[in-house]
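[job 0412] stage=fold_complex status=start
inputs:
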Amino acid sequence: MDWEILIQNILNALQWGSFYALIALGYTLVYGVLLLINFAHGDIFMVGAYVGFFFAILFTGNSFLQLPFDIPLWLVFILTVVLSMIVTSFVGVTLERVAYRPLRRKGANRLYVVITALMCGLILENGNLALFGASRRMFPELIDKTIYTFGSITISNIKIMVIITAFVAFIILELIIRKTRIGMAMRAISYDRVAVPLMGIPIDRVIVFTFVLGSSMAALAGVLFVTAYPVLEPYMGAIIGWKAFIAAVVGGIGEIRGAFVGGFLLGFIEIFVAAFFPSTLRDLIAFSLLLILLSMKPTGLFGVSRSTKI
Amino acid sequence: MRKQSKRNAFVVYLCLLGMICTPALWAKSSTIIIGFNIPLTGDIPKVGEGSKYAAKMLEDQINNSGGLLVGNKKYPLEFVFEDNEAKAESAIAASLKLITQDRVLGIIGPQASKQAIPAGEICDSYKTPMISPWSTNPQTTKDRPYVFRGCFLDPFQGPVAANFVTSEFKAKKAAVLYDIASDYPKGLSEYFKLAFEKIHGKGSVVAFETFTTKDRDFSAQLTNIIRSKADVLFTPQYYDEVPLIVKQAHDLGWKKPIMGSDSWGSAELVNLCGNDCKGLFFTTHYAAAGAKGKTLEFIQKYREKYGYTPDDVAALTWDATRLMLNAIKNTKKLTGSTRKNRRAIKDQLSKIKNFDGITGKMTFSSEGDPKKCAVVVRINNQGKFEFFNSVCP
Amino acid sequence: MHFLRKYQYWILYILFSLLIVFGAHQEWVDAYIQLVIMYIGINIILSSSLNIVNGYMGEFSCGHAGFIAVGAYVTSVLNVWLFASDRIFGPAILGEYWALILFPVTLLAGGLIASLVGLLVAIPSFNTRGDYLAIITLAVNYIVKSAIENMQVIGGARGFMGMRKVVNAMQDVWDIPWMMVFILIFTGLTVWIIWRFVSSTYGKGIIAIREDEVAAEIMSVNTRGMKMTAFMLSSGLAGIAGGLFAHVLGYINPGSFTIMKSTEVMVMVYLGGMGSLSGSVISAVLFTILLELLRPLQVFKWVVIPLMLILLMMFRPEGIMGNREISDFFPQKSKRN
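[job 0412] stage=fold_complex status=done
writing structure:
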């Protein structure tokens, strides 16, 4: 076994898996609190990427608005990430308010909410296509790319940044969930939805907070993704969203540790299959492995099975 | 109450039936309708845009002079543009709509071989003439009397690329990275491999890596390619994938030449690719820089109207549409039967000799393919496409 | 008279079909309308077959496109191999008369293999419900699509062609629009089979499973057998629809059978009302016509349609028919004893 190829591919997989992990975190957060598979999440990732793109070209002076001063590029990058996270959280919360909350109030069957989520995703994708046109956009280069070589292993600073950001985001999320009161409220809702409002916890506020968290994770993933792969297109969220969703389920939906591990697991499977087999087998092997994992452990790797009283 | 609901149901049925049948009543027969099956959305929208702009320019030019003269009557032109979303199944739906609903006399497009091959099957079985301006895969026209093309073929382009990398880069080992899910890259890569191995011996293509359409990360394949120590990387992909491939190759430390094919030639390539693409080469159908005569006229008019230099798709669409219109003119008379008209147009197309196109002179072979020259282009340091040399069959 | 009344629906349907086939043959309606009618027939089969699992049984199966793909490919490969000369398989093995006779057989073969693939979904459903089953069905859909993409022999992701030659071979025998005939026959058969299925003990059983699976098991309903039958019937019918779809279009590729297609079928089921057979028939008709009517909108079509569906979910979530049938509107007079 060639050690250098192995390490190179491990680094590739860590980077590719970081995106899946960040998006899967968003799915898990919303599912844990609402028991809703938010199928529009992949498209929130796309919205985050596009919003980041618009801010970036605004600040680098490439759009119709010219700023009177020049901002150093690294500052532009940080501004882009932060602003994109904020704006995308707005989009996520709007989605919740407009589409999901009325159905929740009416006590509609969960199935209808899921269909609504699917449809919202479609509207986001096709709305983007209709409003901004079909041409591909290029994300401006905000970070000077330096390539480090160790022997025949090459890694760019962007790759390292992506991996580190993913881990840091996960740790922050874990801290929020385990150490803060609102995190405790989120965990409580996932255990027993009926009792929680009786205890005086404002469910709506907690749900809004969950959507804010989930959407900002997706936006972060979006901006990082277009920094690493600078071509933007309206359907970029669709496939990645579905795969991240399956990764979240395999990890155990409702558990953020599971989502994180599941995302990296999927990233590893995809990269290593592409390295040793023709790339077309990648989806086949990835999904078959996932299916086998699910049939052995139906609630996922870290998931907890729920029992229902008869 | 029951009678009323029964009657309501009956009325609803009638309305439905009426809704279905009304489009059938909108048949026109005094204009020449040509259909365009192009990718306005999807992976390669710039290709669709170039086709549409060139076609509209031609339509305005001819309609402003009163229409197309067939026999002794002038018919106004009507171009119908259908979006095939760069997907094969949408290309088929678009062809069916153009053939059955709009009753076009002929279809221009689709451009990419992945859509052109299935759409060609439909046009051939519905006996509607079709010209694909840009599709280079031989399967588009093979065994299909009603399908023609406006450009050279991949069995010709593959050896051109292989010879070029041998003479220019002195390459003895080559690597190929292509999309196995799409007909054009797969076909062209195989022709390149055949040609290269004929020159340098079996096994000289040391890496033949694949990916699937819509893939974004090529690090695994590129790692293999770098390990293989090839002298040149050949990647016949479309303009939305090339920037990612080239950037990732450079990130992983590839410093040797990268060779492209005619799918690179879009006006948007350098916008998306930036500095990574400067200094790279590709084969294509025409070079805008250094054009003369009618070609220069076309480029200037296009640039004036739309603000950028037309790419090869626009020029080829201009020629293909003029070919179709020429064939219609040569039928000397349009009857009332769409079927007879289409057959007459097809016969006239196969008889065309030495048509003066802005991308070269065209005579169709028995399969419907013209003999045309290929041009090798270099992307210079200003990001413009520079003519390097040309190869003719 | 009694005979006419008893079989009134059948006779109406046969007359209607004969009218359409005759009209298509004489070209009173142009090829475009014929195409729309054929799509309506296929969509009726698809939405009613999915209704068995999603509507009557209350499961959440989002992988229907996988079964359509299996049926489409099996039928097409068999037909092109046997009846048409093709680049991959060489000249036709059997003649044109055989094409006509064996076409329903290959169609049923496609449906059979699709129902065997349906077992892949049925068996996990014994232990899981709800969202986890949804994931499994999604995964099966992706696996089927990827498996086809890897079979380079039949074209892989680049698609498979040649079905038009099969249809031409059939038309060489007797020149009537055969695809229209077959679609009308199979649509009628499908609706009849499903109607019989849900009116039988099986139907009551799967509705019981939807309402409360544990109680049904306790009450001696054979939940495992019923689930297996329901899934296999649903996927088998989807396979037949797939085979018909392939021959109408003349070209298939895995890209037509992704989650988007499953979503379209699910939309038709929910639009019509879960648990209502006539609902899914009506919604299939309406949805197909709507898709065609909105075509001039081009890109905005796929913004308007989801928007309409969201509004529908908010204001009339049970769909057009809820879980009533059309016979609830036209109740038959009770027979005098």
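[job 0412] summary: DSSP finds eleven helices and four strands in chain A.
[job 0412] exit 0
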